[in-house]
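Methods, example record. To illustrate the input and output format used throughout this study, we show the complete record for tRNA (Adenine(22)-N(1))-methyltransferase. The sequence lines were provided to the predictor; the line carrying structure tokens was produced by it.
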Amino acid sequence: MKNNNELSKNIDGVEMKLSRRLSALAEWVPEGARFADIGTDHALLPVFLAKTGKISYAVAGDVHDGPVEAAKRQVSEADLGDIISVRIGDGLSVLEPGEVDTVTIAGMGGSLMARILEQGKEQLKGVTTLVLSPHVAEDAVRQWLVKHDYVIDREILLEEDGVIYTLMRATLETDSGLAQAEQKRLYDEAILAPSLLKISSALLYEMGPLLLREPTEAFHLKWEQEIAKRERVILQLSHATASEAAEKAREWEEDVREIREVLSCLPVEKR
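The corresponding predicted structure is encoded as:
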């Protein structure tokens, strides 16, 4: 029986399956890209992209021995050793500067993803497209992108196996002035005016500038879940005796109040 969270494609008589999340990421990779998949696991994404002729070259990198060996087997069985180079290494260290123009990183927290991007700035030379899927702390990734002139042009939320994933694509704007102007437009705190005159910068980075502009059912579900998580933290803090706990609880309560206010201001027809 076919899994509704999998998409299949017949390539050269062989059925290849990608999860809906990997399939969505694949769609955002530019045609003819020189591609790197960081944290590649079994190299499913680069193999799929190479088999479909969408990329001209790929590096599949992972920090762990097991996934690297699995990736090598996958590449060998697909007879793609001349297109895909499988490498072991930490983050972007598997790349040479200028070697690729598109990088995908998925399946890790946003704080770790931002650290990988920061530590690999030298290897990102020549990289014009980043396709990313952080599963928590998305704000850390968006802040890194703004700081380094990568402008988000796609954002979606995708539910798979009961988990809501954030997917984003950002392209490099080489003119720093233009980049700053576009970031200012994207992260406009009056994005919901006149319904809500101002949304805090911190929440804008958490929620996502494009996701806020086109809120979906998944968006509302994700943030109702976030409210529930934060209310559980507030309850735990209310039982703590340390003086700092009360102040922390007030901060979390203010977060919840603002999230509720934002959700209530979103267009009714988009719920």
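Annotations derived from this record:
The two ends are 32 Å apart (CA to CA).
The chain has two domains: 6-185, 201-270.
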